[in-house]
């Protein structure tokens, strides 16, 4: 949802900054790398110590690099497969650090086994949600669904809650409850999203196989009519189509 509605706004806002970085000779890859390093530092230095306010401030300063790098690549006309790979791979690293930081806090001084487990669940389910799309697309399916909670939602829900919960350390009473609530929302939302994506891939996969089988059947019938092929051709073609669908990029 955010990807659909907020991206255009942030593109407009960040375009001048992206242009400025390009003029200074900064590359999109450098922004991707520095942004990820900053998010990791914010999450792994501050969150395990329960310093959620400062951790969120540092992460917020760096996380928007994920919108700037692509913007720079597009402005400079250097969007590449390598850049897409680097961007998506480092997204997974940054997400791992954020939810890993929460887990480390609850495993240590935060002392809450259930919330530690929920944080680990958020980490793992978020990675799997992203993987479903990447793997589905790699086997040639459109994966035409985003689902309830994409990466932007996972980040906004958990970071807004963490930033506000961090105000507890400055004397705001009761506000620390927001982080556990957000983690539960992200956990349940990620599970729903995973279900939505798996169902979509299963449906698209069945449709693709049916289409391939129908195509192979038609080709076999055509060949039989012209006498160019035996009766086994349709079955072999369908089997080939199935194995192609399963392994080709
Ligand atoms: C009192 C003060 C308290 C302090 C509060 C601090 C407030 C700050 C809190 C939060 C700010 C969080 C901002 C998070 C912004 C996230 C931006 C971002 O990185 O979005 C990335 C996203 C996806 O980009 P990609 O295409 O590069 O990534 C793809 C994606 O990862 C796919 O994953 P999947 O979705 O499938 O799981 C992968 O499949 C794919 O491989 C990968 O390429 O970009 C967007 O979605 C664009 C939209 C961004 C919208 C950002 C909205 C920010 C909104 C509000 C923040 C301000 C809130 C202020 C609240 C203040 C509260 C007091
Ligand atoms: N170092 C990079 C980073 C990104 N790209 C390209 O941008 C796309 C992602 O755009 P975002 O707005 O989501 O950042 C990505 O698929 C690449 O095409 C790049 O080339 N180099
Ligand atoms: Mg990016
Ligand atoms: Mg990204």
UniProtKB/TrEMBL annotation:
One of its GO terms (biological process) is phospholipid biosynthetic process. It catalyses: a CDP-1,2-diacyl-sn-glycerol + 1D-myo-inositol 3-phosphate = a 1,2-diacyl-sn-glycero-3-phospho-(1D-myo-inositol-3-phosphate) + CMP + H(+); 1,2-di-(9Z-octadecenoyl)-sn-glycero-3-cytidine-5'-diphosphate + 1D-myo-inositol 3-phosphate = 1,2-di-(9Z-octadecenoyl)-sn-glycero-3-phospho-(1D-myo-inositol-3-phosphate) + CMP + H(+). Its cofactor is Mg(2+). Pfam families: CDP-OH_P_transf (PF01066). InterPro entries: CDP-OH_P_trans (IPR000462), CDP-OH_PTrfase_TM_dom (IPR043130), CDP_ALCOHOL_P_TRANSF_CS (IPR048254), PIP_synthase_PgsA1 (IPR044268). Its EC number is 2.7.8.-. It is found in: Cell membrane. Residues 216-228 have a biased composition (Low complexity). One of its GO terms (cellular component) is plasma membrane. Pathway: Phospholipid metabolism; phosphatidylinositol phosphate biosynthesis; Lipid metabolism. The active site is at residue 91. The chain crosses the membrane at residues 52-68, 155-171, 177-195. Its main location: membrane. Residues 216-249 are annotated as: Disordered. This is Phosphatidylinositol phosphate synthase.
